[in-house]
């Protein structure tokens, strides 16, 4: 992949979930259009990974940790936006999951990988738990800041435990021999 591909892929990964959420919820302007600095920050961050690409296998744990942080932070951001739009509970949770997960799905599809979201590993489940805890905490009148921190800490802990202990959901295996 050339440097433009790296730039584009980095931007899609970081901003794709929020963009899809904004389009589906008719939330305009799309976040990175309203704040182009997000596009430049994510693109430049992606370009900064080029010099360390050869060391990536040694930095796997760091990248999994950073991805886990991104998952829970973006989930809460998506929920917060849907709450401010006055949307129903289920839509708030789905908006959080879309924001937290879809950028990675788009990245994986573009890289011809099976999206992490579609594997048995706890990923989308962590997003659902994080969003649900955030929503619940805000409904019982915990301050928005404390609710966000609480939900993100629980979600981050759950994701890190899932990585460490290879926790996952049961796999669905289709076999034509079953009738």
TrEMBL record:
Transmembrane segments: 30-50, 62-83, 89-110, 122-140, 146-162
Entries under Pfam families matching the protein: Gly_transporter
Superkingdom assignment: Bacteria
Keyword Transmembrane helix: yes
Sequence ranges assigned to domain Glycine transporter in this UniProt record: 1-50, 65-137
Main subcellular location of this protein, as a coarse class: membrane
Location relative to the cell: Cell membrane
Membrane topology: Multi-pass membrane protein
Annotated keywords: Cell membrane, Membrane, Transmembrane, Transmembrane helix
InterPro entries per record: Gly_transporter (IPR005115)
Family: Belongs to the UPF0126 family.
Protein name per UniProt: Trimeric intracellular cation channel family protein
């Amino acid at each position: 992949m050339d440097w433009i591909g790296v730039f584009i892929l980095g931007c899609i990964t970081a901003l794709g979930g929020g963009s899809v959420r904004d389009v589906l919820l008719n939330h305009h302007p799309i976040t990175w259009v309203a704040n182009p600095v997000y596009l430049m920050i994510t693109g430049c961050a992606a370009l900064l990974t080029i010099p360390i690409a050869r060391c990536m296998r040694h930095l796997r744990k760091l990248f999994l940790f950073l991805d886990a942080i991104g998952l829970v932070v973006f989930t809460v951001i998506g929920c917060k936006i849907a709450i401010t739009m006055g949307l129903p509970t289920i839509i708030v949770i789905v908006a959080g999951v879309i924001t937290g997960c879809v950028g990675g799905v788009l990245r994986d599809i573009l890289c011809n990988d099976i999206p992490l979201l579609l594997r048995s590993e706890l990923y989308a489940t962590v997003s659902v738990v994080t969003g649900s805890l955030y929503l619940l905490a805000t409904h019982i009148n915990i301050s928005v800041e404390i609710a966000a921190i609480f939900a993100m800490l629980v979600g981050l802990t759950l994701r890190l435990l899932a990585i460490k202990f290879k926790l996952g959901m049961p796999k669905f295996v289709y076999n034509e021999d079953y009738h």
